[in-house]
Amino acid sequence: MGFRLSGVVQAKKLLRRSLSGSRQAANVPKGYFAVYVGENKTRFVVPVAYLNQPAFQELLSHAEEEYGFDHPNGGLTIPCSENEFSQLTSQLS
């Protein structure tokens, strides 16, 4: 149980760092966060509850490895295609 909790804490730290100073953060409803996905950096707004899901935590780990924490547009960029992301989020819903 402690391992899973530490994964959630790390995911929240990643999200907090990526969204700090974001201009578009005000456009996201409470309980949600924005991510950018795919080659065109399409913006998706997803529930914060996804941070508890192991599959989503894995995506965040890949995002950290590939892009780090400093994003020029202020949002979190996810390294997968829009179709893959849509399939994952539909399974999490």
Automatic annotation (TrEMBL):
A Pfam family found in this protein is Auxin_inducible
Q: Which InterPro entries match?
A: SAUR_fam
One GO-annotated biological process of the protein? response to auxin
Q: Which domain of life is it from?
A: Eukaryota
Family membership noted in the UniProt record = Belongs to the ARG7 family.
> Could you tell me which PANTHER family the record lists for this protein?
SAUR-LIKE AUXIN-RESPONSIVE PROTEIN FAMILY-RELATED
What is the recorded name of this protein?
Small auxin up regulated protein
Query: What organism is this sequence from?
Result: Kalanchoe fedtschenkoi
